[in-house]
Q: What sequence folds into this?
């Protein structure tokens, strides 16, 4: 995996920073309007949750997808903000569920402001994001968005069901990550296209791009949980094992494993998963069977599928530059170290 | 307070039961469609949360408000179901926040299925309710609904701010209950009218009815927390005191109290609020100053204001019968024992 070429003429990093800045400006003025007269603590909690050094990848996708279908106006950045609201709502609720204390090296909302504030702030963000989507992308956009949200919840339930179960199938893993991550990123792209009035072919193409990209993103996330550098990611490695999550590197290894090794993994899953020794044993087994390497190949294939989905777009302006950025973003997802 | 006249020609109880049955049928078929292929645990949690013996007052309001503006078709019952979804989402998240074990004599969702399931199921219901409102009541309906949700969250934050504070003003109490309960009931009524294509006068009239009714409902709730019969309500009395909530009966008493009594209440609030002796002392002080009686009068006045808001409706059909039911419902809210 090589780092993205940041001196490429399309300059993804510069564009990402400029879009993030415009989205953050939209978020601030939307919050000022929506929170006028609100409780100061609610205002503080929402600002703390939203302005947390996030990468703003979802809003960037909305913006690029709308632009490459020919629309780029002020309200696009507010539409994009709605996807960041939902994403942050999800993170805030997830941190309550996982009882997480830290996110990106800072206290989580739940750790800093308590359980009630975290649940309620997440609910506020849900309502605000749906309000904005309904207003800016109409009933069709809202339907795509709400179905993706429902699907994300279902993915979380399915994931809970497979916890610690070494009989989990690769198909089940992909089903979970498509629901947890792929659908929502697909909806981000599809609604950007819908907002720009794109025809169904383009909407579907961008939705497919987002779906594959989201899956690739999650596979890379699952790889980083083993291979990541804590200084870059701000997260400790081995969390998924502690939580009993069976992710692709392990599934790949289990496919190659002997019956004895499979039983050993089952025993590790049923034992004390917080023991460093248990994690080292699992890690060695995955490495022995090439589980990391083949998961990285899968991520590569998913990114190729994302790129292939962009075929209906021509090389002519205004599509060209934005399609190039979408392609570069897909490469970045693959190469990211955090 | 007298019990509602159930043999009144408009027969509120029979109508409420028939509307509840149709709403529940809509809920079941909507869930079947929306949850096709979903995780069995998610399906179980949602059914457990939704079919819990609830009074279905919010859907009844939507239906009556739409009917008295001239629309009554199959999709009305699905729109009404959306309000029950949001209401139940709120209850499920509230029970997580309050760490409540029981609701209406049954385990709460959080107690039965755990914290993760409760938060996620609430999120699912949020998304589904907004999807339905957006589809059936359009962007204007969604905007009213999402603003009411945001306002409810803000009301919860304000309530947290006033916990244990005997300097709370009556105005602050009413501000909290309008936001927590009034706005959402007002939106239930306003969206019913909007759905039926009512003009702005009627929409506003029904919203005002709902706002006053919601406030009355909350005042009665706060009274029942002191005066309720546990066998009828399924709740213990004195919960608000344990949680440090300063409600209207106490505020009324504090308005009449001497400085010494006020300091005694402050000491009770700062002491161990789980002590039965502390609760008895507070109760006696409220009774001594007529705090229960004057709160009951306030509830009566709020119901009168709700009834007065219905003035723009004429006595002619199809309005007559449904307006009569709305009036009867307001009287029921006042007289309810649970």
A:
């Amino acid at each position: 995996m090589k780092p993205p070429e940041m001196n490429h003429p399309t300059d993804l990093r510069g564009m990402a920073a400029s879009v993030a800045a415009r989205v953050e400006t939209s978020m601030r003025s939307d919050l000022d309007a929506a929170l006028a007269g609100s409780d100061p603590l609610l205002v503080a909690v929402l600002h703390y949750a939203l302005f947390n050094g996030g990468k703003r990848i979802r809003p960037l996708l909305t913006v690029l997808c709308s632009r490459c279908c020919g629309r780029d106006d002020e309200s696009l950045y507010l539409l994009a903000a709605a996807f960041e609201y939902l994403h942050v709502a999800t993170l805030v609720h997830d941190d309550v569920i996982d009882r997480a204390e830290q996110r990106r090296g800072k206290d989580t909302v739940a750790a800093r402001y308590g359980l009630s504030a975290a649940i309620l702030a997440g609910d506020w963000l849900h309502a605000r994001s749906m309000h904005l989507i309904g207003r800016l992308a109409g009933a069709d956009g809202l339907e795509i968005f709400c179905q993706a949200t429902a699907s994300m919840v279902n993915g979380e339930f399915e994931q809970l069901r497979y916890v610690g179960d070494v009989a989990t199938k690769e198909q089940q893993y992909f089903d979970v990550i498509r629901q947890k991550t792929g659908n929502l990123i697909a909806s981000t792209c599809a609604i950007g296209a819908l907002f720009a009035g794109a025809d169904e072919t383009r909407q579907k193409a961008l939705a497919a791009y987002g779906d594959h990209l989201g899956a690739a993103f999650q596979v890379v996330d699952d790889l980083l949980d083993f291979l990541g550098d804590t200084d870059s990611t701000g997260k400790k490695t081995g969390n998924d094992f502690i939580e009993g999550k069976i992710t692709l590197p392990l599934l790949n290894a289990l496919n190659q494993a002997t019956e004895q090794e499979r039983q050993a993994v089952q025993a590790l899953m049923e034992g004390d998963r917080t023991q460093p020794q248990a994690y080292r044993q699992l890690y060695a087994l995955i490495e022995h069977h090439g589980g990391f390497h083949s998961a990285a190949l899968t991520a590569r294939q998913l990114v190729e599928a994302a790129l292939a989905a962009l075929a209906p777009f021509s090389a002519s302006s205004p599509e060209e530059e934005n399609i190039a950025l979408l392609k570069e973003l897909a490469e970045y997802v693959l190469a990211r170290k955090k």
